[in-house]
Amino acid sequence: MFSATETQGLFEPPALTGGFVLLHAVPAALTSHIRWSIENTLKASLKLSWEAQPARPGYQRTELTWTGPAGTAAQLASALRQFSDTHFEITERPTATSSALRIMHTPSLGLCTQPVDAQGNFTVTEDRIRYAFEQAAGDYKALYDQFALALGQAWDEELEPLRYSKKTINIAHIRSEG
């Protein structure tokens, strides 16, 4: 049997947090499907302001902020990754019980999820560092490659041209009812 102090917090709703969804490049034909997917995940309706993605003709881009329970960023990423030809990033602010996150997706690389510290730096766990050393087996080039992978360098390189090919647009704010 659990005491009151042992069960305190077990049945509390997840802490509220929020973040951004940065849809860097979405095929124009999928914009409605993307909106429906986000609405379904957040259980809220939204109106997105799409604009052409100059770095990728035939693609659109938009941004939105969201508020919802911790874990919403992962739910959004799971919903959006089914649209394989999309480039996006999702952020989630920290709570008292969860780390901040940045999730990146590109068609060629898939998903990359990184915990983020208070200064906005990716954090790499001790286990991931040990794995990098084991895989490199004393080869410095291999170690560099492992650290680059652990820091999401390939995702950053692929997304970078799409991040800076934008004008200022209105950012929609959505609050999850979840």
What is the fold's blueprint, element by element?
Elements: H1 4-7, E1 16-27, H2 31-42, E2 51-52, E3 59-69, H3 72-80, E4 87-92, E5 100-106, E6 110-116, H4 126-136, H5 140-150, H6 153-163, E7 172-175
Parallel strand pairs: 3-7
Antiparallel strand pairs: 1-3, 1-4, 2-3, 4-5, 5-6
Helix pairs in contact: 2-3, 4-5
What is the gist of this entry?
The protein is α+β, with helices and mostly antiparallel strands.
Account of the 3D structure:
There is one protein chain. 33% of the residues lie in helices and 28% in strands. With 178 residues, it is an alpha+beta fold. Strands 1, 2, 3, 4, 5, 6 and 7 form a 7-stranded mixed sheet that branches. A hairpin with a 7-residue loop joins strand 4 and strand 5 (100-106). Helix 2 (31-42) packs antiparallel against helix 3 and helix 4 (126-136) packs antiparallel against helix 5 (140-150). It is globular. It starts with a helix and ends with a strand.
Helix percentage: 25-40%
Beta-strand residue percentage? 25-35%
Low-pLDDT segments: none
- What is the helix/strand order? HEHEEHEEEHHHE
**Helix- and strand-based class?**
alpha+beta
Question: What distinguishing features does this structure have?
Answer:
alpha+beta, 7-stranded mixed β-sheet, 6 helices, 7 strands
